[in-house]
Structure to design on (548 residues):
RNA sequence: GCGCCCGUAGCUCAGCGGAUCAGAGUAUUGGCCUCCGAAGCCAAGGGUCGUGGGUUCGAAUCCCGCCGGGCGCGCCA
C-alpha cells in the first residue's frame, strides 16, 4: 500500500523545520484542514509558531521552509508545490491523481476501509449500561448503550481487542426494595397504600412481575424466592430491549459474585494492609483524601457490612487482573463522584494499577419532553420513557444514531413529540438515503460492482468530485481520532457531512452518462462513498439499507 | 456552601488555543422533478460564541471572577 500522503507531508515539513530552525524546542508541525477549498487540502502554521522564537517575520520563515522542502515534496509525486499565503501559512495541495486514487483504495479495501490493519496487543474493556435489575431500561441507558457499543466498535476498528461488559448490581438494598415491592403488590397492596414498602417501586412492571409470580405459584412468604424471580424477570426484559437495540455483551458480571468469590474480602484486607485505613465511630474508613477526594470514605459500616464502593473497587481490581490494560466505564454524570473514589481505592491498594485507571465516559442524562412538559426520569417514579418506547416510536436506527450524535457530556432534550412527528426527517434517514441512492444507481447500471476497483479514475476532475474524494480520504484519520478521544459522535457528524456532499454531487452531475469512461469513473466514486457510509454506519450499529 | 460538567442562530447541537473560526441541522422565506430515488438539491434572512477581566502576535477555544443551568456532596446503590 502506498504511504499516506498526509504522513509524508508532515514528515517532510518536520525535516524542513529541523534544517531551517535547528535546536528550537516546543515546535511541532501541525496540519489542519482549511475550511475553504481555495486554501488547499492541508495548511501548516508552523512558520507562525517559529516567528516569535526566531524573531523573524513568519512569511520569510514560511518561504525558507517552502524552498527547503520543495525537492523532497516533488519526489513524492503526491503533492503540488506548497503555496505561501496570508501571514505565513503554507498551503498544501494534493496532485489530482493522488486524490483520485483514494477511490480505488476504498473499493479495494471494502469493509475494512478505515480499519487499522495491524492488531494491537492491548486488551480493552468497555463497561456500559450496567443497569440495576430493578426496572426497565430508560433513555439514559439507551444513550449508554449507543455510546458504549459505538465506542467499542471504534476501538475494535483501530485494532484493539475489546470486551463489552455489563455489570449487574444485584446485591444491594435496591434489590431488597424490588423484592418487597413485588411481594406487596402480589398481596394486593397498591403503591402508597397501607403496608407499602418505604422506598417501593411503583411502576406497572412490578404488578406484571407480581402476577407472573403468582401464576407460577411461587411462595409469597419466601422473600428470597420473590427476589430471585423478580431479578430474573427484569434481566430477561432488559436483554430483550438490548437485543432490539442491537447491542450484545461478551461478559456479564454480577456484583454478588464479588462477595461470593471472596474478592470483596480480599480488597478490604488489601486496603487494611496498605495502612490507608482507620477506625472511627465503629466504622472502617479509607483515606481517599490522600488521592484527591474531598472527604474520607467508609469501607465497612458499623453494622459490619460494606459500602457499595468496596465491591466496585474489587471489581476493578478483577478487571486489572483479567489483563485489561485499559478500561472504559460508560456511566451517567450522576456517578461522577465514583470516579475519584474508585481510583483512590485502586491506588491505595498499591498493586501497580496506573493512576488514571479506569477511564470514564460520563454522559449527561437525557431530558425527555412530551406534550410540552418534561417527563421525569427516575427509577422509582415508574413513569419514565423506556428504551423500548423510543424504539417503537422512531425505530432502532433513528434512536441509535440520534443518541450517539451528541458529545457525551452535553445534556440534550429528546422531544418525543418531535421525534414522532418528524421521524421521517431524522438525520439518520439522510445518511441512509445516500447509501440507498448509490445502490439504486448501481442496480440500474447493471455492471459488476467488483470491476469498479479497476476503473480508470482519470476523468474525475470537477471540484465536487475531488472534494468528495478528499472527504473519503479523511475517514481513517477521523476514526482514529474519534477512538483516541473516546468520541463516537464524530462518526455521526462525519457521515452527515459525507452524505451531504454526496447528495450535492448527485444533484449537480449526472452519474449514468453516455461516455463510458466517465460513467464508470463516477460510479466508482459513488461506490466508494457507499462503502464508506456502510462502514461508518456499521460502527454505530445502524443499518445501511439498499432500498428504503 | 463545596466539587465536577455545561452556557455558540428561534430550537437541537458541532467546533475547544493559529488569523484560512462564526458553523451544521432544523424552523422560516424563495427557487429546482418530461431526466440516475424530491426521504434530495440551490439560495436568502438569522448569533457581541452567557458576562467582565487576564495571558498571547492571535481567544468561541487557555486562566480567574461573576451570572445562569445540570449532576453530585449518606455508615444508599
Amino acid at each position: 500500500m502506498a504511504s499516506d500522503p498526509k504522513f509524508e507531508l508532515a514528515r517532510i515539513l518536520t525535516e524542513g523545520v529541523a534544517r531551517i530552525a535547528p535546536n528550537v524546542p516546543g515546535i511541532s508541525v501541525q496540519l489542519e484542514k482549511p475550511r475553504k477549498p481555495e486554501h488547499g487540502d492541508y495548511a501548516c502554521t508552523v512558520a507562525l509558531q517559529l516567528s516569535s522564537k526566531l524573531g523573524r517575520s513568519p512569511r520569510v520563515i514560511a518561504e525558507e521552509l517552502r524552498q527547503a522542502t520543495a525537492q523532497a515534496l516533488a519526489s513524492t509525486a503526491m503533492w503540488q508545490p506548497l503555496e505561501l499565503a496570508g501571514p505565513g501559512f503554507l498551503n498544501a495541495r494534493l496532485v489530482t491523481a493522488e486524490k483520485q486514487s483514494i477511490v480505488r483504495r476504498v473499493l479495494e479495501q471494502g469493509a475494512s476501509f478505515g480499519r487499522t490493519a495491524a492488531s494491537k496487543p492491548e486488551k480493552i474493556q468497555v463497561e456500559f449500561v450496567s443497569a440495576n435489575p430493578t426496572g426497565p431500561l430508560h433513555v439514559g441507558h439507551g444513550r449508554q448503550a449507543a455510546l458504549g457499543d459505538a465506542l467499542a466498535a471504534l476501538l475494535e476498528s483501530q485494532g484493539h481487542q475489546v470486551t463489552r461488559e455489563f455489570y449487574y448490581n444485584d446485591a444491594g438494598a435496591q434489590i431488597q426494595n424490588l423484592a418487597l415491592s413485588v411481594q406487596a403488590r402480589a398481596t394486593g397492596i397498591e403503591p402508597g397504600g397501607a403496608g407499602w414498602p418505604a422506598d417501593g417501586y411503583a411502576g406497572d412492571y412490578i404488578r406484571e412481575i407480581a402476577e407472573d409470580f403468582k401464576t407460577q405459584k411461587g411462595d409469597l412468604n419466601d422473600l428470597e424466592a420473590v427476589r430471585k424471580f423478580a431479578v430474573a424477570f427484569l434481566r430477561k426484559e432488559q436483554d430483550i430491549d438490548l437485543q432490539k437495540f442491537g447491542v450484545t455483551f461478551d461478559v456479564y458480571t454480577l456484583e454478588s459474585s464479588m462477595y461470593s468469590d471472596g474478592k470483596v474480602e480480599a480488597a478490604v484486607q488489601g486496603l487494611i494492609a496498605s495502612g490507608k485505613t482507620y477506625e472511627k465511630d465503629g466504622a472502617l474508613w479509607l483515606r481517599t483524601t490522600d488521592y484527591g477526594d474531598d472527604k474520607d470514605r467508609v469501607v465497612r459500616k458499623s453494622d459490619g457490612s460494606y459500602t457499595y464502593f468496596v465491591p466496585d473497587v474489587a471489581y476493578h481490581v478483577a478487571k486489572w487482573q483479567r489483563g485489561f490494560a485499559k478500561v472504559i466505564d460508560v456511566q451517567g454524570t450522576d456517578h461522577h463522584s465514583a470516579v475519584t473514589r474508585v481510583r483512590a481505592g485502586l491506588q491505595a491498594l498499591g498493586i501497580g494499577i496506573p493512576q488514571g485507571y479506569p477511564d470514564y465516559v460520563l454522559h449527561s442524562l437525557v431530558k425527555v419532553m412530551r406534550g410540552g412538559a418534561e417527563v421525569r426520569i427516575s427509577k422509582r417514579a415508574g413513569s419514565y420513557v423506556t428504551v423500548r418506547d423510543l424504539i417503537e416510536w422512531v425505530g432502532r436506527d433513528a434512536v441509535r444514531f440520534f443518541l450517539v450524535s451528541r458529545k457525551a457530556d452535553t445534556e440534550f432534550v429528546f422531544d418525543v413529540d418531535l421525534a414522532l412527528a418528524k421521524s421521517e426527517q431524522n438525520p439518520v434517514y439522510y445518511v441512509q438515503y445516500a447509501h440507498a441512492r448509490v445502490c439504486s444507481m448501481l442496480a440500474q447500471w447493471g455492471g459488476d460492482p467488483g470491476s469498479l476497483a479497476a476503473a480508470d479514475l482519470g476523468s474525475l476532475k470537477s471540484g465536487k468530485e475531488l472534494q468528495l474524494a478528499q472527504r473519503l480520504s479523511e475517514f481513517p484519520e477521523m476514526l482514529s481520532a474519534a477512538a483516541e478521544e473516546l468520541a463516537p459522535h464524530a462518526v455521526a457528524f462525519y457521515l452527515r457531512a459525507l452524505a451531504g456532499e454526496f447528495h450535492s454531487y448527485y444533484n449537480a452531475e449526472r452519474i449514468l452518462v453516455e461516455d463510458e469512461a466517465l460513467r464508470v469513473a463516477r460510479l466508482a466514486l459513488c461506490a466508494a462513498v457507499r462503502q464508506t457510509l456502510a462502514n461508518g454506519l456499521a460502527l454505530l450499529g445502524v443499518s445501511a439499507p439498499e432500498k428504503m
